[in-house]
Model the fold of this input.
Amino acid sequence: MDDLDGKLLSALHRDARASLSELAETLGVTRTTVRSRLQRLKQSGEIVGFTVLTRQDVAQSPVRGLMMLEIEGRGTERTMAQIAAMPQVRAVHSTNGGWDLIAEIGTETLAELDEILFRIRRIEGITRSETNLLLSTRKGRV
Done:
């Protein structure tokens, strides 16, 4: 991957629906160059797919946090499924280190966050948790 490939991927991250002509103009290259680069990036596995973001995907809950969880025994899969089924949970990650799972949570109010944290802590097998509120987010280039 060279600099042009990186710029092409950045342009696609901003707008995956951009036409070949738009991408060519943005990058200062021909449509043929964009087409061949896209084909090569797909064939090499660098681009594995395209997706759509909906309004719900980008709407941020005003109160967001990360909840780190320690799970007793071998119940991680079950616990992960229970947590992921809660509508306030945006994602659940398995991890290494001192914590077994990290849950991304988003709510409308602090009271709602407190309620979901309480519900998660009551799940059988959770032995310890720590929650950090997210105050601001800056997204880097993916």
